[in-house]
Amino acid sequence: MSEALFEVKDVTKSYRTGDVEVQALRGVDLTLERGEMAVMLGPSGSGKSTLLNIMGGLDRATSGRVRFADHELTEHTERQLTRYRRDHVGFVFQFYNLIPSLTAYENVALVTEIARNPMDAGEALAMVGLKERMDHFPAQLSGGEQQRVAIARAIVKRPEVLFCDEPTGALDSKTGILVLEVLCRVNAEFDTTMAIITHNAAIRQIAHRVFSFRDGRIEEAVTNAVRLQPSSVSW
Ligand SMILES: Nc1ncnc2c1ncn2[C@@H]1O[C@H](COP(=O)(O)OP(=O)(O)OP(=O)(O)O)[C@@H](O)[C@H]1O
């Protein structure tokens, strides 16, 4: 049997602000296979972003273990975590965080300067269906197009894993579906492992597996017998 790409074991995370302690994760176990598309659902505050930030090397667990391939993330120094993020991980957030004074092409090309084995910025923009728009500035692009530029920027370094926190949260359903189609294409063509956080339960249908969070734990993990194309999902 092949070894999982990610293995999360009994992870807890608590935040302390003054006298107040918040228990964001209360013992999470999870594995992700290479090439798997996972959707993370759950109420606000249930710990989804906290877990993704820890798996993405942006934050540290309070206890427990997180392994990615042969990286023991929970034992990494800050320097090792930075290298892990740079070499292996792409992030897509709800708000696109593009640099307004740079064109779509330049926003993506910035990453190619520090990546180990990037694709060409134009190739990444073609992958998200925006080759014709690469000389446009963010203000000249719709929200969905800006999000696709953000996805191109995340995939241009050929990450093995892509973490998406509410990637369609700011988009109407038609535009959101286009963005999900791009994510499915990247997953299928590059075998990129993905974890997508959403409040939109309909999106669960595009995943291989759906994890439901509640109160800092994973309450349920369901494998979809049939996956839907984003174009067949409606909300
Ligand atoms: N940096 C922080 N400092 C203090 N508390 C935090 C911090 N980050 C998250 N929390 C708390 O941890 C809990 C889990 O937050 P988290 O953002 O992981 O939830 P979520 O499921 O992603 O929620 P949402 O769907 O609203 O984004 C919440 O109670 C939140 O207030």
TrEMBL record:
It comes from the Bacteria. Residues 6-235 form the ABC transporter domain. InterPro entries: AAA+_ATPase (IPR003593), ABC_transporter-like_ATP-bd (IPR003439), ABC_transporter-like_CS (IPR017871), MacB-like_ATP-bd (IPR017911), P-loop_NTPase (IPR027417). One of its GO terms (cellular component) is membrane protein complex. Gene3D superfamilies: P-loop containing nucleotide triphosphate hydrolases. The keyword Nucleotide-binding applies. GO terms for molecular function: ATP binding; ATP hydrolysis activity; transmembrane transporter activity. SMART domains: AAA. The keyword Zinc does not apply. Keywords: ATP-binding, Cell inner membrane, Cell membrane, Membrane, Nucleotide-binding, Translocase, Transport. Belongs to the ABC transporter superfamily. Macrolide exporter (TC 3.A.1.122) family. This is ABC transporter ATP-binding protein.
